[in-house]
C-alpha cells in the first residue's frame, strides 16, 4: 500500500491512532473520540487486507518481511514476517477491533476516548505478536498486550473487576516469565541470536527440550486457556465489558494456541511428540469436562466463557495429533471461534444493555419482543453447537477426522463436544428466547437497532460463508502446515 511496509502499518496505524484518540481527552469530546476511533479501526482493517490479497499460498516461507537492527549489543532486531499460520489472525484481529469500536459506540458513556484508545493500541500490539520473528520483539508485544486488557477489565468491568483484572494479569505474567528464560537459553544455544527461525535449527538434548517444552507450556497454556490453568477466564469474561469479552475470546486466546505452533512444535519437536499425551489428555478433559461445567451455568457470559475453553480444547488436540487435518482443523477452529464467540458475546451485550442482567432466569419469551435479534441469536447458537453449514462445524469435523487416524478414542471423546455443546447452548437459548414473557422488564425491551443489526449481520455472513466455503481460509494454511509437520518429523537431538 503506497510502497509502505504492510506489517508495520498493521501494527503502528492502530497504536498511533489510538494515542491520537487518547489525546482527545475528556468526555466532552466523546463524539470526536468515537469518530476518530472508527476511522483508525477502519484504516487498521484496510491496511491488513493486502496481507491476504498479496499472499503467496504456494510457499511456506515468511512473507512481507521487514528487518531493522534494534538492540545491537544483543543482536536484537525489529524483524517482522508472516506465513500461512500467522497471517489470518492479523486479519481476524483487525476485523474484530473494528466491530468492537462500532459495538461500543453508544454503550460506553464514560471515559470514551480512553476506552476506544485501549482497544486500538491493544490491536496493534496483538498484530505485533503474530508478526514478530525476533524472540525479544515477540516477548515485548506479548507482555505489552496485557496492559490495555488489564485496564479495560479494571476500569469498565463489573463489581469484581479489580479482582478479575489482577487475576488475569498475574496468571498470564507468571507463565510468560518462564518463556523469557527459555528464550535466553536458546539465545546462547543458537550462538547469540534471538531470531525465532534460528531457534528452529538448534539441536538440543532431550532433557533440555522437555524443560523448554514445560516453559512454553506454562506461557501458552494459560493464554489458551487449557484445563487446569483456565480459572482466570470465566472471572475475566464475567467482569469485562462486552468489548473486552469479545477481544479476549476472539483474539487473546488464539495467541496462546499460536505460540504452540510457532515455538513448541518446531523448536522442541522431540519433546513435543514425547509429551503429546499430556496435551491430548488435557485437551480431551477440556472438551468433555468443561462442557459439563458449562451446562450448569446460570450466567450467560460465564456459560460462553466455559464454552470457549471447550472449543479451544479442540484446537490443542488438533495441534498435538501431528497430522495436516488436525493442525489445519485447529487453525480453522480458531478463526471460526473468533467469529462465533464475538457474535455470542455481542448478543449477550445487546440483552445486557437493555435489561442489565446476564442471568438466564431473568429472561424468557424474548422472541415475542425481539424477533430479529432472536433469529441472529439462533444462528450463532447453532454455530456454537457445530451445526453443518456453519463455521463451527468445519474445524471440529477436520480435527475429529484427523484424530480418527491417530486413535479412535481420541475422536470419540472429542466428538462429545457436539452433544455437550448443543446441550448447554440450545438449553440456554430455549430458556432465554422461547416461552411466554414472565419478566415485565422483558416486555419493555426493543428489538436491535441499525448499528446492532449491521454488526450481527456481518458476523452472520462470516459464519455462514466459512461454513459453506472454507477453502479461502484453508488454502493459505496448507504449505505452512505441511512444512511445519516435515520439520517436526526431523529430530533435533544432537
Could you describe the 3D structure shown?
With 494 residues, this protein is mainly α. It is built from 24 helices and two strands. The protein has a two-stranded antiparallel ribbon with strand order 1-2. β1 (63-71) and β2 form a beta hairpin.
Summarize the structure.
By secondary structure, the protein is mainly alpha-helical.
Walk me through the topology.
Blueprint: H1 6-22, H2 30-46, H3 49-53, E1 63-71, E2 76-82, H4 87-103, H5 112-131, H6 135-144, H7 146-156, H8 161-189, H9 196-199, H10 206-223, H11 232-239, H12 242-267, H13 269-274, H14 276-295, H15 300-319, H16 324-355, H17 366-369, H18 371-384, H19 391-406, H20 408-433, H21 440-443, H22 450-468, H23 471-475, H24 478-488
Question: What descriptors fit this protein?
Answer:
494 residues; mainly alpha; two-stranded antiparallel ribbon
Question: What fraction of residues sit in β-strands?
Answer: under 5%
Please tell me the overall pLDDT: 86
Euclidean distance between termini CA atoms? 45 Å
Give the C-alpha Rg.
22 Å
Low-confidence stretches: none
Q: Give the strand tally.
A: 2
Please state the structural category.
Answer: mainly alpha
Helical proportion, percent range: over 70%
**Strand and helix order:** HHHEEHHHHHHHHHHHHHHHHHHHHH
Number of contiguous helices: 24
Query: Strand sequence of the main sheet, in spatial order?
Result: 1-2
- Main sheet properties: 2 strands, antiparallel
Outline type: globular
